[in-house]
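RETRY 2/3 - previous attempt timed out on the joint model. Re-submitting the same 533-residue input unchanged.
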Amino acid sequence: MTDQDHSESKSSLSEFERQKIPDRALLGFRHFIGMYAGEHCAGTELMIGPLFVAAGVGAFDLIVGLLFGNALAVLSWMFLTAPIGTRLRLTLYYQLEKICGRNLVILYNLANGVMFCFLAGAMITVSATALGVWFDFKMPGLNDIFPNSIGWVIAVIVVGAVISVVAAYGYKTVARIANIAAPWMVLIFLAFGLIGLKQFIDADDNQIQNAGDLWTLARTQIWKGGDPLPGQVKFTFWHVMFFSWFCNMAMHIGMSDLSVFRYAKRSWYAIASAAGMYVGHFMAWISASILYAYQLHLNPADTDVLPGPLAFRAAGYVGLLCVIIAGWTTANPTIYRAGLAFQAIRPRSSLFKITLITGGIATFAGLFPAIAMKLLDFVALYGMLLMPMGAVIFVDYWLMKKFNLYPFFAEKSRINFNWAAGLTWFLTLATCLLLVKFAGIQIFFVSLPGWFVAAALYLILSWGYQKRRAFLMM
Amino acid sequence: MKNVLRKISGIIGLASLVILLLPSVLFLFGDLSLERVKWMMLVATFFWFVFAPLGMRER
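RETRY 2/3 succeeded.
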C-alpha cells in the first residue's frame, strides 16, 4: 500500500511549494505510471493479503471486490483529485493554508505526522519478522498486542534505529535503492503467488486441467470463506471493495495527491494510478494471501501473520530480503515525511533531530504488533481521519462560488484558523465515530457517508461563518 | 566505452529480471524443484542489484 509513503519520485517534487507549477516543470504520463507502480508495492502488502484470509474472505468476494474497489480508487484520483490538482497546480498544504489558515494546517500536519509514525511502525514490524527467521526468536501472534519476547524487542529496535538514522542522514540514497528495488520487488511478489499456487496444487495432489479447476481450487482451498479467525472481523465482498477503495483515501478523496497531480499536463494522467492499484493492491495482496492460506492449510492452528516466515517458505533468502527491503524502503520515506509534517509545526527545529525523534516514535510503535496485526482497521481509520479535509477542498473549489461564498476564505480574510473548516473536520469525525459506535456501521464503510456529511457541513458552516466575518469586517 | 558498459549492464539487469520470474513459472508447471527456484532467484537478485544501478544511471 501504502501508500501513503511516496518515494523519491514524489520527494523530488518538493519544489514550487508556494507557487503554481510553471509549464516547463510539467511531467509526462510515463512518470506517473512508474511512480504509482513502484510505491504501491510495499511491505504492508505482505500484511494486508494474509489479513484478508484471516478475515474469512471468499474467492469471489476477494477477486471481484478488489477489481471493483481498485477501479473506484482510480476513478477517485481521476475525478476528484487530478481535476483540482491540474487546474490550481498547488501543493495540498498551500491550498489548505489558503482555505483553512496556518494554524489549522498545523493541526492537520500533526494528525498526518502521527498517523505516518504508526504506519512506519507497522513497516518496521514487517521488516523485523524477517530477522525472526534468521535469529529464531519468538515472534508475536495474530492477536498479540504487546511484544512477547526480548528477541522481538531487540529486532524492532535495531531495524527501527537503522531506518531512522538512514532517514535522517541519507534519505536520497534509500529512495534511490527503493527505485532500483521496485521492479525486482513486483516480480518477487508475483513469484510468491505462483509458488504458493503450485504448493497448494501439490499439497492435496489437485489436478488442474483448466480455468474451472483453478477456480474450484481457489474457492474451496485458498479463499474458502466461512468464519474469520478469532478476533478478526468477517470480510465480505463489500468489505473488500470498500477497503481497497478507501485504503488510499488520504491520497485521493483526502486530496494529498494534489501535490503530485499539480505536475500532470492533463488530469486524465491520474489513470496511471491503476498501475499501482492493480500491481500492488491486486496482484501483491492476492499473492501474499495465497502464502498465508497455504500456511493455514498446512497447520490450521498456525494463525500467525508473519511476513518473514511466509516469504522464506516460498522463496528462501530472496523472500527474506524482499520483506526487509519492502519494509525498509517504505518506512524510510514515511518517517521522513512524518518528520517534515512535524517540522512544519516547529519550522526552526532541525529536520535531522525531528526525523530521529520521529523514527524513535515509529520504532516504539513498531514494538507493538497490534498495529500491524490490526492494519486493516488502522488503514481505514487513517483514511477517515483525513477525509473531511478532502471534502473541504472539493467543496471550496467547485461549490463555494455557486453558493455566493468565498473560496480560499482564510487567505481572503487573513485569518489563521477558519472555524468553518475546523468545525467541519471535528464534527465529521465525531459523526463518523458515533456512527461506528452506536449505529453499527463498521469503520470500513463509514467514510462514505462521512464525506457527504463533511461537504454539507462545510457549506452550511461557511455560510454562517462568512456572513458573520463579513459583518465584523464592515 | 562507458556508455557501452552501461548498455550492457542494462541488458544484464533486464535479463536478471527474466531469470528472477522464470523459475517460479517453471515451478508452477512442475518443471523445476522449489530448491532450485530459490537458488536461481537468489542469483538473479544478485545480478539485478549489481547491474541495474549501472544500467539505470544511463537514463
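The first helix of chain B runs from residue 2 to 28. Closing ticket.
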